[in-house]
Amino acid sequence: MTIISALITGMAMTLSLAAAQDSTTTNEPDSAELARRAFARASVMSVHLPEEADTLDTDQPDIKVILYNDYTWRFIKNPDSVMNSNIFSEYWDEHNVNPYQMPTDSLPAIWTVWICDSLGQYHCPHSTEVYSGFGFRHGRKHQGVDLPLHTGDPVHAAFDVKVRISAYVRGYGNLIVLRHENGLETFYGHLSQRNVEAGDWVHAGKVIGLGGSTGRSTGPHLHFETRYRGFAFDPRWLIDFPSGTLRHRLFTLKKSYFNPSSKYVQTDDDEDIILEGEEADRIRAEEERKAAEAAAIKYHKIRNGETLYSIARKYGTTVGSLCRLNGLKETSVIRAGKSIRVR
Question: N or C, where is the chain less crowded by C-beta within 10 Å?
Fold first, then answer.
């Protein structure tokens, strides 16, 4: 059984079992199990996928390759491995805007962060011109950018995340803080409505709230911040808001960049230099997985006397799987000398 099919079947069985238990007992699934179900369901339903043909392992146990009957493929993560990451437990506080409270000396001089790899997604929170940027404003630190919008306009999650804060916070008004698997946090302030709660798992592009002018605000706009370990940096280093595009999938950070007066903008050359080092290994590993996916497709030349059943038995598969891969019916006649896809 393939990963996504297993997730769907598993959720159906779990929900059926839960329904049966409800009639005989008062036991209910704990919050962790409910969150796992929600995350798995969102992963399955986030995109419309063709019928699956096979599932391949990779050199990383928590990552699989799904092959589809239309000859496309994609990587998926095991939801449990994401949810159990210590990123979503260490310094986790559903009320404190900055739970880290650490000095800059605790940070390395320079490090890299994958913003969006082949397993992640991205969606611009709100595409528009920036009318108030990151830096000093009226003698005070402005730790994000202000994006003009109308009250009620949708605000989207930038990346796949878990909601850390969804509350009314002084100054920010209605605030949502999302923590991403790479350790970054994104802030969405002055909302008129919050559509998610702390602890929810959401995927890139989900409408998490509606634009507004709550808190310390002079008019409807989205206050958007990007932070790492509690330290804010200019979101425009990551996102070109007028076009809505992501500037870099791999981003380098230095302690000096957290200074509100920093004018650093990462160039393509910076990214190339980083990729030549340790991070390049991840790119090569991805290419190797692609090659493995292509090599996994296998054909068999039909011999006299062979049937779909005998071929399926030889390759440890089923007649139904062979039919799906080759557009056949179980009653189809196969001819010697022809080739049939078996994997």
Answer: N
Architecture of domain 299-341: Roll (3.10)
Domain-by-domain residue ranges, the chain?
Answer: 3-84, 91-266, 299-341
- CA terminus-to-terminus distance, the chain: 14
Q: Is the pLDDT of residue 78 over 70?
A: no
3-state secondary structure of 196: coil
Residues facing residue 122 across a β-bridge: 159
Query: What's the DSSP call for residue 109?
Result: S
Pick from 195, 163, 12: which is nearest to 88 by CA? Answer: 163
Structure tokens at 330: 């179980």
CA R_g for the chain: 24
Q: Cα 114 from chain centroid?
A: 12
CATH code at 91-266: 2.70.70.10
For 123, counting Cβ atoms within 10 Å of its Cβ (0-12 exposed, 13-18 middle, 19+ buried), the class is middle
Cα 266 to Cα 251: distance, rounded to the nearest angstrom: 8
pLDDT tens for 281-324 read: 555 666 666 666 666 678 899 999 899 989 989 888 898 888 88
Which tens digits make up the pLDDT trace of 153-179?
A: 999 999 888 999 999 998 899 999 999
* Confidence (pTM): 0.60
Cβ neighbourhood burial of 107 (10 Å; 0-12, 13-18, 19+): middle
